[in-house]
Write a structure and sequence with these properties.
Elements: E1 5-6, H1 8-14, E2 22-25, H2 29-34, E3 37-38, E4 43-44, H3 50-53, E5 62-66, H4 72-83, E6 87-91, H5 94-100, E7 106-107, E8 121-125, H6 131-143, E9 148-152, H7 157-164, E10 167-168, H8 184-191, H9 197-210, H10 220-234, H11 238-259
Parallel strand pairs: 1-6, 2-4, 2-5, 5-6, 8-9, 8-10
Antiparallel strand pairs: 3-7
Helix pairs in contact: 6-8, 6-11, 9-10, 9-11, 10-11
Length: 271
């Protein structure tokens, strides 16, 4: 089993990727209730009742738990998880250390009807191509890793969302939608106060592809082409479109975060 603690830098490198651990906020209930910000995808659980919620952790998953400073509360939870044979670590320095180090957080109250007992539910139009793929990717990677997505005819989006106690998005007349020249991806970033320069740069690519503005970013035309191609491959299977689309955004995020300065020329240099 790995070290008891995960460092801030180690967790920063995983946030927003498909390799990110399941993150649990284990602050005492009253402290969590007053908190305005949480770590990306974090879900609150009672630190003294680990055996009641540990069964929701899939086999082989890695877990990070955090409290205010990484002291007794998160360490108690992690000890109990490790006793059950789970790959769990406590965040070194806790939430306070994370924020002092410039770690990314999201605005907790931004998720309408937040319910710690179940995944959030999001409803949008059928046949997603760009914004309606980018938004689920953003939600799963930064807001709720277990989020569920429903695709219905445009006229049914708001009524289905109401029936599911879900969140309608990327359709006219809803809060999480286009705003002037901004697309729904931009709206989500702003709503959840996600101050990630990499996401801000990626948002230009998404906006350019989704709103016919290839001038906004050189990559926008490429994203449009790949998105339309993936849609054609899916043959109307909207969840298959998500499965094909997520790796595209994973790659764009990784490129912008780690490799944007690289070039690829021909002919190749000879040693």
């Amino acid at each position: 089993m790995r070290d008891f603690f995960i460092t801030i830098d180690e967790l920063k490198a995983l946030i927003g990727t498909s390799r990110a651990p399941m993150i649990y906020d284990v602050h005492r209930r009253d402290i969590y209730a007053e908190a305005k910000h949480i770590l990306p995808t974090a879900r609150w659980r009672e630190h003294t009742r680990v055996t009641e919620w540990a069964s929701e952790i899939p086999p082989g998953a890695s877990v990070v738990a955090y409290c205010a400073h990484g002291h007794n509360v998160s360490q108690l939870a992690v000890s109990a998880l490790r006793e059950l044979g789970l790959d769990a670590r406590a965040l070194e320095g806790g939430l306070e250390g994370w924020r002092k180090a410039g770690g990314l957080t999201i605005l907790k109250a931004a998720l309408p009807g937040r319910d710690e007992a179940r995944p959030s539910r999001w409803v949008t139009r059928v046949r997603p191509k760009i914004d309606r793929i980018a938004c689920p990717w953003l939600i799963r990677r930064f807001i709720d890793a277990q989020a569920q997505f429903f695709f219905v005819e445009p006229s049914q989006v708001t009524s289905v969302a109401k029936e599911l106690a879900g969140i309608p998005y990327d359709i006219e007349g809803v809060e999480i939608g286009h705003d002037g020249e901004l697309c729904s991806f931009d709206t989500l970033i702003r709503r959840f106060a996600i101050t990630d320069p990499t996401l801000a740069s990626l948002a230009l690519v998404v906006r350019g592809a989704d709103t016919a503005r290839p001038d906004l970013a050189p990559e926008a035309a490429g994203l449009l082409a790949v998105s339309l191609g993936n849609s054609a491959l899916c043959g109307g299977n909207d969840h298959a479109a998500l499965r094909l689309g997520f790796p595209v955004y994973d790659a764009l995020y990784a490129w912008r975060r780690y490799a944007a300065s690289e070039t690829h020329n021909w002919p190749a240099k000879r040693s």
